[in-house]
Structures are given as structure tokens and as C-alpha cells.
Amino acid sequence: MSDIEQLQGRIMAAMERASRGLENLAPVKEDVPDLSQDLEDERTANAQLTERIKALNEQMETAATEAQTKLEEAEAKIAEMETKLAQEGEAQSRIEQLDVELQQVRGANAKLSEACAALRDANEEGVGDPELINKAMQAELDALRAARTAQIAEAEAILSALSPLVESAQEYH
User: Fold this and answer.
1) Overall pTM surpassing 0.85 (yes/no)
2) Going by C-beta distance under 8 Å and a sequence separation of 6 or more, which residues neighbour residue 99?
3) Residue-range definition of the domain harbouring residue 75
4) Could you please report the per-residue DSSP string of 136-147?
5) What is the pLDDT of residues 39-54, one digit of tens each?
6) Which stretches are annotated as coiled coil (predicted)?
7) Alpha carbon separation from 47 to 43, 53, 54, 133, 146 (Å, rounded)
8) Rounded Cα gap, residues 76 and 82, in angstroms
């Protein structure tokens, strides 16, 4: 019997140790729900941050797309303005060229008119050749026609220079 009593004592001691171990585990188990709640809170915060990042990325992509569109529009306007500027430069160059030619024609006309006047004076004095006078008059008429043609060309150049400006003004109004 003493063996049974001895075994019974050992079993009782083991059960008492197990009971104390369970008592020590009880406070640890109480901390675990708090950690689970903290973990759940962190997961929720992480999900919210992930959604916020997605929203910010979408906003950034939208802003980038809008900026790209505005950049393309600005580049198109710049190209259009450069084309208009080139056209205006060409028109200005033509106007300057026509002005030089017109000044030359006017100078030639003035000299021709002086020569014709001298021929007429000489004819009145009876020393002029009627054939030369007719040729001089014809030359003067030709010069006047050339001057008229130059004036028409000058007017057309002015109109071609003003046309883009008028069109631009109409676009803005």
C-alpha cells in the first residue's frame, strides 16, 4: 500500500504543479485578446493607408494626364504662332523688297519725266526730233504703267500681311 500512497502523493503533487502553471497562464491569456485587437487595428489602419495611396496615385495620374493634355495644347499653339510669325516675316520681307523696287521705279520715273520735259522744251524751241519725243513719251507711259503695277503689288503685299492679323483678331473675339 505504501506504493499506492506514494504514487498517489506524486500524482497529487503533479496536479498541483499543473494547477499553478495554469494559474500563471491565465494572465498571459488575458493579454492575448488585447494584442489581437491591436493587430486588428493595425490591419484596419494599413487597409485605410493602402486605399489612401491608391486614391493619391489616381489623383496623380489624372493630374499628369491633364498636364500632358495642356502641354500638347500649348505646343500646338506655339507651333501655330511660329507658323503665323514665319508668314508675317515672309510678308514683311516681300513688303520690304517691293518697297525697294517701288523706290527704284519712282526714281526712274522722275528721271524719265525730267528727260521728257527737256525733250518737250527742246521741241518747243524747234530743235527736237518728233520721233524722239514720241519714244520718250512712250517710255514715260511704260514707266507709269510699271509704277502702277508696282503700286498694285504693294497693295497686295500689304493686304497679305494684314490678312493673318485680321484673322487672328477675329479668333480672339
Assistant:
1) no
2) 154
3) 2-172
4) HHHHHHHHHHHH
5) 888 899 999 999 999 9
6) 39-125
7) 6, 10, 11, 106, 86
8) 10
User: Could you give the number of structural domains in the chain?
Assistant: 1
Give me 27's grid cell.
494572465
C-alpha dihedral (30, 36, 37, 42), degrees to nearest 10: 150
Reading phi first (left if > 0) and then psi (alpha if -120 to 50, else beta), residue 128 is in beta
| Euclidean distance between CA atoms 52 and 37, whole angstroms | 22
Of 140, 141, 139, 157, residue with least CA distance to 101 = 157
How many angstroms separate the CA atoms of 165 and 170, rounded? Answer: 9
Q: How far apart are CA 173 and CA 167, in angstroms?
A: 10
Q: What is the dihedral of CA 117, 120, 121, 123, to 10 degrees?
A: 160
10 Å CB burial of residue 119 (0-12, 13-18, 19+) is buried
Which amino acid would we find at residue 18?
Answer: A
